[in-house]
Amino acid sequence: MVLELLRHRVGSPISYSSIAGDVGISPNTVKKYISILESLYIVFRVMPHSRNIARSIRKEPKFYFFDVGLVRGDNGARFENLTALSLLKHAYLKTDREGLLYEVRYLRTKEHREIDFCLVMENDILFVLECKLKAPNISKPLLYLTEKYGIKGIQLVKDLKRERQIGNIEVRRALPFLKEL
Length: 181
Prior knowledge:
- 41% of the residues lie in helices and 26% in strands.
- The chain is of the alpha/beta class.
- Helix 2 crosses helix 3.
- The N and C termini lie far apart (34 Å).
């Protein structure tokens, strides 16, 4: 039952207590089940980025599947899962090649502005990335965070006619970008 709930909540922060309430088991049991799913390489977690480790541990993780076919939901959830998986493989490759710790995280501010992913090297954000199926306009949280912190931003769009750059933000076609990783 926990697996089935995760399949429908791809890309959303997961509360162990919420899942426990839905399934009728304790939050600790939910954590154990999810830990088993991670050990079997069925799911992987993406934690929120924070320079304060204690603060990021308290925040809710997002879970994605190693097999995109297990995702239940719309095409947006599948696309976000595919992007998460591609970024994870890229982070593992960079870590192995360079000997530096690369991680895939997500960003969420106190004002609940959320960015799908950020690629972090040794706790420094290299870029933030927002996934969209079709998006003529730049995501407001992406625009806000790139302007406020001077971070490179990428809006990855599955169906995009023309790539462009606006300030620190690149609007990119998904397929060529993911192939480059």
